[in-house]
Amino acid sequence: MNFSDFDLIAWVLIPVLIFFARLVDVTLATLRHILVFRGMKKVVPFLAFIEILIWTLAITQVMENLSNTAALLAWALGFSVGTYLGMIIEERLALGHQLVRVIHQKMPSDFIESLKESGYGVTSLGAHGAFGQVDISLIVSPRKRLGQLLKMLNQMTPQPFYTVEDVRTVGAGAGPTLPANSFALAGALKKK
């Protein structure tokens, strides 16, 4: 192969640009879908505008270079990596709340008090399970603090059965004390 005939722009520069454009637009798309579910109406249209603008630029380059295998591979790789990056960013933002449903024989009252003192909203009610009477506790937790809550639950003896669900909206009432900006994007990155 004669390297003087190699088209650096077509086989390297354009695929790299397609990859990064796709990386950004798919990352934004992933975040946009998650924010739609969280009901964040003010941010979503802005992300959608930027996302489709970048997507249009990227698809234009792919369509102009359909015979370029590197451009097609860059498109696919950018989609894959963008999806992964969007999920990582969303996980670090930890927006919203989650409902933890705990089924247990009898949750100690001092444990319930420690949950309340830690700022979690707890509602308990009686139920009948497969092995007799049980209590069901519903605990609302900011998603950023879910790990802390699950650690507390796993330290209980005996360990209770629990499920975790996403919550779209949390209304006012007797629940956890939440900071006014708990839904803000600024400063929402959780530390690892």
TrEMBL record:
Keywords of the record: Cell membrane, Membrane, Transmembrane, Transmembrane helix
UniProt xrefs under Pfam families: DUF2179, DUF5698
Domain called DUF2179: residue spans: 120-170
Superkingdom to which the source organism belongs: Bacteria
Bilayer topology: Multi-pass membrane protein
InterPro entries: DUF2179, DUF5698, UPF0316
Membrane-crossing residue ranges in chain numbering: 12-31, 43-63, 69-89
Ranges where the DUF5698 domain occurs: 30-87
Location of this chain's protein in the cell: Cell membrane
Similarity field: Belongs to the UPF0316 family.
UniProt protein name: UPF0316 protein QEH59_02445
